[in-house]
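In the previous chapter we treated chains in isolation. Here, by contrast, the input contains two separate entities that must be folded as one system, with a combined length of 977 residues.
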Amino acid sequence: MIETQHKEVWLVDDDAIHNMALEILIRKTNKVYQVQAFTQASEALEHLKSRVDSGETPPAFLFLDLNMNEMNGWEFLESYAYFPTPFKKQINVFMLSSSVSQSDRNRAVEIPDVYDFIIKPLTHHSLQTILV
Amino acid sequence: MNSSFHVIDMNKIAHQVLGVSPEQLRDKSITDVYKIHDSDKREVSVEEIYQNYQSGNGTDGNFRFTLLEDEYDEVIVHLNFVAVEKENVIEKDAFVFLAIKNVTSEFESHLELKKREEQFRLIFENSPAGICFYDLEGTIIQVNDEFSFILGSSRERLVGLNMIRDLKNKEVITQVQKSLEKKLGFYEGYYSSVSSNKTTFVRCFFNPVLGDRNEFIGGVCLLNDLTEAQRDKKRIEYLYANLNALVESSQDYVFAIDRDGNYLYFNSKHVELFKQIGGVESINLGDNVFDFLPKNEDVELSKKRLREIFDGKSLHYKRSILLDNKLRHFTVSMNPVTTQEDEIIAVSIFMRDITKEHEANTRIKLNEQLLNSVTSNLTEAVYRSSKEDGIIYANDAFYSMFGYSKEEAINDKELYLFYENPGSRTSFLNEIDENLKVSNREMQLKRKDGSRFWALLNVSKIRADEKDYYDGVITDITERKRNDTQIKESEESYKKLFENASEPIYIIDESYSFVDLNAAACKMYGATNAELIGKKPPFATDLELNNPILIKDMLKKAFKGVPQNNVIYGKRITGEIFPQKLRLQKSTYFGKTVLIAFVEDITQIKKQEDERNRMIQDLTRQNRDLQHFSYVISHDLRAPVANILSLTSIFEMADLDAVTQNKIINGLQQSASILDKTIRDLNEVLSVRNDIHAQKEFIKFSDIMLSVQTGLTRQIMQSNAQITYNFDEVDGMFSIQAYLNSIFFNLVSNAIKYRSPERTPEIHVVSRRKLGKIEIEFHDNGLGLDLEKFSKKLFDIYQRFHTHVEGRGLGLYLVKTQVESLSGTIEVKSKLGLGSVFTVIFAHD
């Protein structure tokens, strides 16, 4: 079980519909979370960086889509790897993908910064278990 | 000096004085007729008288001569001696001239005196000896012609000369003085005349001269020129010395013995021999040879032989003597030694050691036997011939080879029988004369029956005994020649095989130059045999095709005997490069080390192979593309589906406010719409892949540009884009109309879509022909791309780099798919903020 001291969830996905649906689902878990969606991965990285610089608490959960234009999920993680470890320890990164490719899953679980790999759609039930 | 005092001659007065006729006295000694008493009545011999006279001890010179026959017939005479030389007789010395004067009678007539003087003058003038009278002081009073001749001086210069005072030769002076002391003087030796400087070898007697009344009045010199005689004597001495040296140095054993076997002569070799065989220590003249003979020698036989020689025979025989355990062989010659009067006085014996000759002869005999046995067993004909005598020697094989009998062969002095024609012999001999030797000459020779055969001749010219010989060995090579012909035939058939082989074959030597090429090889290179021989096999010089180091290495290895098998690129005369499979095999060709190259022109195979490789590459790429495509599609198809699933699950939940419900419905609508678009795109992409085999036609680029501009009229108007193109270099190609249209449309439309807001869009399309390919460049001055960031994904499906404008990220993906379907490639050059150049490259139609 993941302990949640912070009530912030970030969504990084260029699919706005998905962000909207996920936001509704998170709200329906009746847990007080603040949801922020980014349609560009680079934008999300910028915000994370400013959190490191300001010393603000990072989001407790980060749902990262794999297939994105401009910067995809893998590329995001390449940059994210250079973030300070104590900072990253506060973030639970979940990779999301609509692809059912097993090779993507295998690749994702190899990355230490990734907590889990989830194939879309993320259901209400699984969100209940993730967001404690 | 005649010691017997025989009377040789006497003059009349002597006759009268002595009272006997010359006939009565001739050849008799005076003492045979007379008893002589001196003044002291002592009986004396003429010899004594002479000796006393010579020594000067004589009495008064008066002697009583008494006839032995009648002791009362006696006469008292005065004797005077004058030594006179007998002409040319040197050894027998002088005889004594006895001047006899009858003093019995007191009578002495003046006339008689005159006569005597006259006789004396005659003797004096005609004497063969030079005579000179001198007075008591030694002054010359008178000389005869001979005297002045011997001394080479005139009578005038000689007369008046004082010999004691004027002569230089002390010995002569001494002898003259002797005569002036009433003694006899004598000189023999070289004498140089004071007045003429002539040097003569002389013999002189200087005698005192008494006057009529026995008074001492001076001296007389009798002079003989012995120069000639001296020369003869010297010659004899020389000859004797030479003879002795000759005999001494001779290898022969020489000795001479008299009738009894006493040594008269022997050389030192003879002594050595007798020391060896008889243990003789030394031999002296006069020793008897029979004392020295070995015990086993048949002395009687030796003596018998000696007697036979003295009977006038000569003997020649051979003797073998065991010396130092070795048998030595001698020839012995025994010859009589005779005097001028044919009297046999001795036997000369010559022994010659012929052991070596004997051994050599034995060896020669052995060698001859050996030679005979060797040559008679040979199958090769062996002969010796000369230009003059023809065949001198030949073995049995020679006669059987030619079919001639020995007699027939030997009678053919010119040896023409054996040669094809006389000329061939002459030229062959000339060649041998020139080189002294001719080896391994193949020649056709003639048998007696007229048949010809091939022979191998080895002939040497040899000089022996001042004559030239030709020693030869002839081998019948008919059989070998036949084999050669067979080899030649098989070579020819191989040559035919080589010539007619459909596979190109060529031969190169160690300088890597063509030695021969078959027709197929010539055809392959597109040149004639004559054009290629001597040249090196033409290879492509393009480093990408051939590595020259590898080719050299390959040739080297092949020459080392390691067969090589490689694919390289050859070059035809036209310059066309073609791939060939080259098999190199070391071999020999007319004695030369060569490589035989079997070539396979694999232009066609290579083409097919290249095609296959290209197809494999295409397929691999397509497969990769398809994998990517399916991945993207699975994602992009699933993404809206996942959203729909998610949204519907929310919709089923309770407590949804109206706003949320609206959002969800909108979301569902959008998702369904995306799904639809994606499926349409999918269809479009797949249709490209299915159209690969559509009919190709010639399409002009300028036509396409027109249709593209028409299709994009609205966008061009809105953006005010300036579109130009230049297809001067190449305007069109065989291709698929729909694809080429789509490629041009997408690239031009992208150029407008991603234009820079800061400037009027300028788009320029240009075609080029480059490296046998067609290149079409699309230049724009738009936004440009950060290629470092995006180059990998630029042509991937659903990739978008500029989010501010509408786009599904399918255009470039489609362009790439279509270009690749047309076996082309697409490249991009771009700089962010400056513009981009997309280049489409098609292989030549």
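Chain A has a mean pLDDT of 88. The first helix of chain A runs from residue 16 to 28. Compare these points with the single-chain example from earlier in the chapter.
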